[in-house]
Amino acid sequence: MQYSKSTDYALHALIHLAHSEHRNNIGIKELSAMLSVSESYLSKIMSKLRRDGIVRAVPGVKGGYELARPAGEITFLEVIQAIEGRQQMFECSNLNSQQHRLLAEVKDAEPIQNDSVHGECLVKKVMDGAEQHLHQYLQEHTIQSVLDTVAKNCNHLANKK
């Protein structure tokens, strides 16, 4: 499993917006220069974030983007889902195979047609559990939590001097 570069750019753009919160908004030109990505590519990413209510577009000559909510309320999971979509990561494609019947967890089921039993695939059950743990972890981390870690690391380095 690998997230797209769009997710990487989205997270970094949001961190930059949150870090620059003292300013009203940041233009696409400045954001794209900061991230070393084309304005048109970043505009598409920001449109997805805007559709999901993560950022707001500020119109006008001095317009740009700003966070729609506090950075502490924007989770990594919702950013990833805004960019990548909300589909499940794993789908059992062996539902009709003999192997699936052997690996199916069956609860009080009666065999139907040719001794096949349709139950939950145990491989899918493991993969779904892993996905739930990943989602929980990503839900616990926010744009603000990254900024807090950076501030803590900067303070730690300053105290070492």
UniProtKB/TrEMBL annotation:
- Give the source's domain of life in one word: Bacteria
Q: Which intervals of the chain form a coiled coil?
A: none
What PROSITE patterns does UniProt report for this protein, alphabetically? HTH_RRF2_1, HTH_RRF2_2
Q: Which GO terms describe its molecular function?
A: DNA-binding transcription factor activity
What InterPro entries is this protein classified in? TR_Rrf2-type_CS (IPR030489), Tscrpt_reg_Rrf2 (IPR000944), WH-like_DNA-bd_sf (IPR036388), WH_DNA-bd_sf (IPR036390)
Gene Ontology CC terms, in alphabetical order: cytosol
**NCBIfam families reported for this sequence:** rrf2_super
Q: Which PANTHER family match?
A: RRF2 FAMILY PROTEIN, WINGED HELIX-TURN-HELIX TRANSCRIPTIONAL REGULATOR, RRF2 FAMILY
The protein in question is named Rrf2 family transcriptional regulator
The top of its lineage is: Bacteria, Bacillati, Bacillota, Bacilli, Bacillales
